[in-house]
Request: fold
Amino acid sequence: MKKLMYVLAFSIITSNSYAQCPNIIQAMVNSCGTNEGNNEFVLFSTNSSTNASDYTLNYGSSIPPTVNNLAGSDASIKTGTGTITTTGGCTVIEVTNPSTSIPANSRVIFIPTTFDQNYDVTALCNGSNPIYVVYIKTNANGGLNSNWNAGGTLSNNASTQRYLQIKQSNTTGCDSINAPVKSYVANGNWGSNTDGNFVTWNDTIPSYGNNGCTSIVLPLKFINLSGVNKKDYNIISWTTAEEMNVSNFIVEKSSNGKDFVSIAGFNANASSNYLQQQYKYTDNKLESPMYYYRIKAVDNNGLFSYSKTVAVQSANISASQISVYPNPAKDIITVRIVCNKISTAHMNVYDMMGKLVKTETYFNSNQISNHKLFVNELPSGKYFIRLKIGDEDILEETFLKK
Reply:
């Protein structure tokens, strides 16, 4: 880590079009039934009202994922013997026509028309709002735009990242270049290769679970996590929803953003159902100028997921900080920066010959920031990141690309 004389924070400028993109919530990776690929499904939420034909799911081992896809333009009548039902809380609306309109703020399941597994998705309900299930006719069954392997598409045992992306064709900024990408690594995260293994994302953070093959659960939803310094102590606050299967929370703390220890525990409000719940913890053991916090949510089966990480600086912090992890990196790195100068910032990536190979521009908003930077297109080798404000170089750090 290198430190220079200024303290700066940057935050990514998010466009209105990006904010309107659909968001992937969950994927059934190791499905049950006769043919595993036919029974795989992906759950996502919508941010605008549009037809089923405007959505396309892509999956693959690179960014953007392009190898396999399920397209809403191939929506058709279900031909398999499987069912998707709820036992209360919401209803299921079957989408069998590409021109069917799906409202904003809906939860949507993409699944092949030939599936033969019975799924109870009650836990996926969003209050009383219905779940829209879009049956997709794959190319092998007469579809035109859905390249999906009936024997199994989503990787059960991959030791490297797998990526999923939902594109929305009628919204600027939701194409394969700009739509958000979710990733997971199968190998070891479930403990064993077992039918019913699924992955869920809290923002971009994956968590891994298994509730059998019939009743599908949605792990805890973190609405908010924040931290603030009150000179002699830090206050960590978080808000949750959908605590239906959550047992307890553990507050974890780190002085470097990588090595965390448990410092407190809270029981979850198991009766909260869809209601939002608020929690607060006061940390008065401050021996470093900077601490990082995250919340670990443990469900009734012992599985767990993490919130995002927040950084809290003490009132007397005076030095800027930049760090990069993981290092060495493969596809994505996180650049963590602490600064207090408000201005436009340029983050430039150079190879060891001094050639500029990547650049991004941000607006610094007087806070601590974590920025994810895609480096999958860079050749293997050593690079350095230089953060610049105007004509002045502020921070610099090196990293290795595998």
The CA atoms of residues 63 and 267 lie 39 Å apart. The mean pLDDT is 83. Residues 16-19 form the longest helix (4 residues).
